[in-house]
Amino acid sequence: MKSASRILNKVKQILHFSTDFKVREVQFFDTQLFITYIAPLTDNNLLNESVIKPLVEYDEQLEGDVCTFIQEQVLANNEVQEQEDINQFVTELLKGRAGIIIDKSGKLLTCDVEKIVVRPIQEPPSSAVIKGPREGFNESIKYNLSLIRHKLPTPDLVIDSFSVGKYTKTQVAVIYLQDIADKNVVKEVERRISKINIDGVVDSYYISAYLQSKPQSIFKQVGDTEKPDILVSKMLEGRIGILVDGSPIVLTVPFILIEDLQASDDYYSQPIKVTFLRILRLIGVVLAVLLPGTYVAIQLYHYKILPTEFLITIMDTTQGIPFTPFTEVLFIVLLFEILYEANLHMPQYMGMALSIVGALILGETAVNAGLVSPPAVMIVALSGLTFYVVPNQASQFSLLRILYVFVGATLGLFGILALSVWVISYLSSFDTYESAYLAPAAPYIKGDMKDFLIKAPLEKMKTRPQSIANNKRNRTRQK
Amino acid sequence: MRMSYRQASIIIFYMLVAFKVLSLPSLVYQTCKNDGYLAVLIMMVVDAILLWGSLKVLKQAKDKNIYDYVKQYTGSVIAKIFVIALTLIPLIHLGIKTKGLEWFLVKNLYTQFEWFQFAIPVSLVTCYMIYKGIRNIGRVSEFFVWIIVIGVTIIIIKGFGAVDWSFFLPVLSKGIKPIFKAIYDYLAWFGIGGELLLFAGCIDFKNEKKSRVFFYSALAIILVQLVLWSFYGAYGIMASTHNFAISDISQISNANIALDELSWLIVSVWAVAQILHIAIYGYLFCRGLQLIFNIKNDTVATLILFLILILWIFWGEHTIALEKLFLHKSIVWIMIVAQYIIPIIIFAISFIKKKDKKQSDAQSAKSQNIIQSTQNEGDKASNADKSSNLGGGKQIKPKSKQPNKSRGKYAKV
Fold it and tell me: Which of A209, A229, A255 marks a domain boundary?
C-alpha cells in the first residue's frame, strides 16, 4: 500500500518545491485524494468544473476500485489517463494537466485542463497576399493541426508526434498524406528528428538545422511557411510538414530552389500574369545578385562595354570620388545591409524614420560630400529593391551579392561567370530527400516545366511534380 | 552516380563544338582558304558517325567501365594499353583547351591580367565539378546549354550582317587536297569517338531517345558551320590573321576595333562553355587515370589533375614551343591511333562478339528447347508408363537425348 502523501512529497522533490505547484486535498468517501497542478499552466475554470466539482459533489454509491470508478464514473473530463510512472506523471503536470494522487492504492491519474494561451489567427506579416486565404499559423501546435485538419478532412492525413528537447520536451509533429508522400522521405525525416538530442527546442529553426544535409551551407535546404493553404498545397505535391509547438513557422521537406520564386497567390491568379511575374522575379534575383558585382567589374575592367554617352555620364559623376568602385560599392552594400538589419529590429513606429535617415540623409549626404557616386547608389538601391520581388526573401542571395562584388573586383566579368558556374555546380550537388535542388532546370524535368517559370492552367497540371519524391504520380483520378 | 541520357547528349554537344569556334577557323583557313568550313564539316560528320559506334559500345557495356568491357574480350594487357591510349586524348584536349582559354582571355579580353590569375580559379572550379562527379557536370552542362546556344546564335546573327557570300565561290577551287591536309594537320582539334568510350558505366540508358543525340549533334554541326561562314564571310582573306573567331565576328560587324557592349556579354558566355569543356575533359582524364592505376578514390584522381593543371599553367605559360606542341606530327599520330583506330577496333570486337554471343544465345536457346521437348516427351512417356504401370505393364526408360535429326527439326520450328 502506497501513501499518497509520500508520493506527493516525491513529486514536490522532483519539482524542487516550486511555488507554482499547487495541491488541493479532497475527501472522496473514505479515500483521500490530492489534486495537483501547476497553476500558470492550468485553466482554473476547467479544473474546477471537470475535476474538483465532480469529486466534491459526488454523493451516489461507490462501486469497485476507487481509481477506475473516478476515471469512468465521476470525472467530467475528455482525457483522463492512468499513469504508471511518477516521472511521467510529473511530465504530464508540466504540460498543463491536473494530476490526482489516490491514497491507499497510490494510483495516479491525469486530466486535460491545459490553459491554451494563443495569438488569434492572423495574416502572417511575412506572407501578405492580395488574393487567397489570409489565415496564418500561430504558436500553438494544437491550433495549427486543427487548421490543417480543417483543410484536409481525409483519413490519409497522418500525424506522427515526437517529444524533442531534454528540458523543453517540445512537441514536434511530422505530418503527411499517407498515399502521396514518399515513404523513404518520411522515414528519413522521422529518423533525423528522433535522433535530435539537445537541451531544448524553442523554435522550428532548431529542428530545421537537424533536417539539413549540409548545415554549413548558406543555401536554404528546408522550406518554411506560415500559411495553412501553402502547407496543404505542398503536402498535396508529396512534401512533408514538420510542426513545432511554440513556432508559427511550419517546415517542409523536400525543398527545391524554385520554391523561393513561387508565391501562394500564383495559384489564385491568371496563368499568363503569373508567368510574367515569375519571369520578373527571376530577372529580379539575377539583378539583385549580379548587378553590384557586374558594375564593379565594368567600372574596373570593361568600361568599353558601355555606350559612349552612358560612359561619359558615369565618368562625369564618378570624377573626384576618393574610393575605387569596389570600395564604393562594398561600402553602400554594407550600409544597405546595416539599415535593413536595424529596420528589422527597430520598433515599428521608428522604422519609417530610419528609412528616411538611411535613404535621404545618409545617401544624399554621402553623394553630396563626394564620398560615393550617384550611379553606385542607384545600382545598389536597385539591387536591394529587386530582392523584394522574391516572395520568400531568400537571405542567401544577399550574401552571394557581396561575394560577387569581391570577384567582380578581382577577376572582372570572367570571374563573375566562373563564380556562377561554381554556384550552379554547388547547387547541382544538393540532393536533399531524393530531390534535386535545381530541378526541374538541372536535371531537366519536362513535366515539371508546367509550374516552373511558365505557369500552366490548373486543369493542365494533371501530374504531381517529379522533382519532389512522391508515391502517386497523377493528381486527378483516372476515369 | 550516373548521368541521364539527355545530359550525355548535351555533353556530346559540348564536345563536338569544343575546339571549332575559337582558334581553329583561322588555322584551317591558312591551308584551305575559303573551303575551310568543308574540312571542319567533313571531320564533324566523321566524328558524329563514330559517336554512334561509341554509344553502341557504351550501351553494351552497361555498368562496366571501358577497361573491364575490353578486358573480357582481349585480356587485361591489351585492355590497359587501349585505356592508356584513350586517356591521352582528354589530356591532349585539356592542353589545347587551357591554352585556347589563355589566348582567349589574356591576349584578347583581359590584356591587363596575368594568365595564372584566371587559371587558378578555373582549375579550382573545374576540379570541384570533377570531384562532385559526372552527374554534377551533366547537370551544370544542362543548365547552361541553351544560354550558350543563344549567345553563339546572337554572335552569328550579328556577323551575318557583314558577310560577303561571294567569298565562298568557287567551291574547291584548289581541289580536295588542302582539305585533307588541314584535317591531318589539325586532327588533335577533332575527334570524340575515342574519349567518349571512357564514359562507359557513367550513362544511364533508361530513358534513351536516340533522336536526342541526333538533335544535339546536328545542332553542334550547324552552329559551328554558321560560325565558320560568318567568320570567313566577314573577314575574307584576313581570316588567317584573326585568331579568335567567336569574338572577332562581332568586331567586324560593328566596324570597330573594340568589342561592343552586347558582344562582350555574349563572348563571356562562351567563356562559360570553355570552363565546362575543361571540366568534361578533366573528368575523362581522371577516369582514365583511375582505370590505369586502379585508383579507387575520386579525390586522389582529382588532386592529380589539379596538380597537372597547375604545372601546365606555370610551366606552359612561358614555353613558346608548347603552343605548337599540338600541331606536332607525333600528336597527330597519337590522335589517329587513340581517337579513330582504337575505337574502330573496339567497335569491331564488340560487334563480332555480340554476333557470336547472339549465335551462342540462339544455340543455347535451341538446346534449351530440345531439353524442354525431350522432357516433355519423357513426361509423356513416363505418363504412359505410369498408365501402363497402373495397368501392370512393363516400365520403359525415357530417352535421355533426341537424335541430331530431330534437333534440326526443332530449330526450324
Answer: A255
Q: What is the CA radius of gyration of chain B?
A: 28
Of B136, B265, B268, the CB nearest to A425: B136
Quote the pLDDT of residue B412: 29
In this predicted model, which residue has the larger pLDDT, B265 or A21? A21
Indicate if A90 and A139 belong to the same structural domain: no
Flag if A441 and B143 touch (Cβ within 8 Å): yes
The residues of B whose Cβ lies within 8 A of any Cβ of A are 4, 6-7, 105, 109-110, 112-113, 117-118, 121-122, 124-125, 128-129, 132, 135-140, 142-144, 258-261, 264-265, 268-269, 271-272, 275-276
* Tens of pLDDT, residues A231-244: 999 999 999 999 99
Confidence of residue B1 (pLDDT cuts 50, 70, 90): confident
Per residue in B51-86, pLDDT tens? 999 999 999 888 899 999 999 888 899 999 999 999
For residue A71, give the 3-state DSSP assignment: helix
Q: What is the C-alpha separation between A475 and A461, in angstroms, rounded?
A: 8
Q: Are residues B241 and B389 in the same domain?
A: no
Count how many pairs of residues, chain A against chain B, have C-beta atoms within 8 Å. Answer: 90
- CB–CB of B202/B292 below 8 Å? no
Assess whether the previous peptide bond of A40 is cis (omega < 30° from 0): no
- Whose CA is closest to A434, among A190, A257, A256, A260? A256
| DSSP 8-class letter at B141 | H
Q: How many domains does chain B have?
A: 2
Q: What is the predicted ipTM? A: 0.82
Collapsing DSSP to helix, strand or coil, A110 comes out as strand
